[in-house]
Amino acid sequence: MSHPDRAAVIPTARLELRPLRIEHAAEMAGVLSDPGLHTFIGGAPLDATALRARYERLVAGSPDPEVTWCNWVAHARAERCLVGTVQATVSGPAADRTAEVAWVVGTPWQGRGYATEAARALVAWLSGGSVNQVIAHLHPDHRASAGVARTAGLAPTGHRQDGEVRWRAVVV
Length: 172
Known about the structure:
Elements: E1 10-11, E2 15-19, H1 25-31, H2 48-60, E3 68-76, E4 81-91, E5 98-105, H3 114-127, E6 133-138, H4 143-151, E7 155-161, E8 164-170
Parallel strand pairs: 5-6
Antiparallel strand pairs: 1-2, 2-3, 3-4, 4-5, 6-8, 7-8
Helix pairs in contact: 1-2, 3-4
């Protein structure tokens, strides 16, 4: 595939990564409401109205036809609720397509392996397409995210961008 299927549902053992919808904003505003989630990424939690506006932009897709925005909410089957998000921005020529990934799990659900499970599933899904490399940018002091990235198959590089360490996995 030249561009990933943004509408794909990605199942894992305990989660279902569901394509982001505007209607997810109300529940996700609660999931992402802890200011502590922004310790390493900056900013502050968005209320449901602001998050809805953000989701409207994300769902509409990138204005650049060479860039695909892929966004999912992580739904925990046993708990029957949303617990976080994963995303990938896919760009570059077909011969050298890159996916830049990110993940976040709400504070009440951290420490249960959900971020690791979601990130591993996302990287595996991207690896099944036309992506040649997966990268993530992580704050150097964010040990939990470093553990997630490592388990998902990424390794730190010597490159820094805006103070964050670039992690990378080459997809074969």
